[in-house]
Amino acid sequence: MSLFNKFHHWKLNKSRTEAFSDGVFAIIITLLILEIKLLPLKEPKSTSELLLMLKELAPKIISWAVSFFFVAVFWVQHHNLLRIAEKIDYGFVWLNMILLFFICFLPFPTALMGDYPHNRIAVLLFGAVSSCASFTQTWMYYYIAKYYLLARYDKKSVLKNVKRSFILAPFLLIFATAASYINLTLCLVIYGIVPLFFLLPFDREDEE
After folding, report:
1. DSSP β-bridge partners for residue 12
2. Range 129-136 average pLDDT
3. Which domains, from first to last, does the chain contain?
4. How far apart are alpha carbons 117 and 59 in whole angstroms?
5. Using one digit for the tens of pLDDT, what is the confidence trace for 82-107?
6. CA separation (Å) from 79 to 17, 43, 45, 117?
7. Distance of alpha carbon 124 from alpha carbon 176, whole angstroms
8. Whole-angstrom distance, CA of residue 108 vs CA of residue 138
9. CA atoms of 76 and 130, how far apart (whole Å)
10. How confident is the model over 58-72, as pLDDT tens digits?
11. Which residue, among 82, 180, 61, 204, has the nearest Cα to 131 in the 3D structure?
12. Distance (Å, rounded) from C-alpha 154 to C-alpha 205?
């Protein structure tokens, strides 16, 4: 039996994979906020000093907000992936682990981009990690659509959605990363826009 066939032969528990992934997503989305820290004020009653410090924290807060919605959208789409899957196998579980690998790393480039919003390397690293995570999740979507899609879904239509997802997510993120060489602000704006395309589930069919 080939390695590819073994991946399909080993059927694994879908609910355990979903529960494990939910736990990882919950931890990561919590860790993101821990990077926003306010230093003690020299004058605790000074409103001007507090406002100045909050202003200095603005890049970190913006970076956190963008990352929060990235992780939130990844979780929503991950939930939808497992909803349309009849079952999962060893191959899907390892694709899922690769996705979680990139998601777990996301707090680092988030903090880096918040500390150095005008540094191209910091912005590029965030885009690179997000692109890798997005590509992996699109691959997971393709994997489910091709092998384990629930019978009530039209396979051809879902595979069209896979192509659309690839264009809207990894491609846009790669474009945003490339745009950083032209204008860092434009790059950050595109980062903020990308999650908006994925606020709705992959499929629009009603539940039976």
Report:
1. 88
2. 90
3. 13-35+43-198 (1.20.1410)
4. 7
5. 988 988 888 899 999 999 999 999 99
6. 11, 47, 46, 32
7. 9
8. 23
9. 16
10. 888 888 988 898 899
11. 180
12. 10
| Cα-based distances in Å from 184 to 12, 35, 146, 176, 195 | 44, 22, 38, 9, 18
Task: Give the pair of three-digit tokens for residue 16.
Answer: 């355990």
The yes-or-no verdict on residue 80 having pLDDT over 60 is yes
Cα angle 20, 204, 196 (rounded to 5 degrees) comes to: 70
**Residue recorded with tokens 């994979």:** 17
- The residue written with tokens 């997510």 in the block is 169
Contact (CB, 8 A) for 114 and 59: yes
Q: Which two tokens stand for residue 157?
A: 């239509």
Q: Which two tokens stand for residue 145?
A: 């659509």
Alpha-carbon gap, residue 88 to 102, rounded angstroms? 21
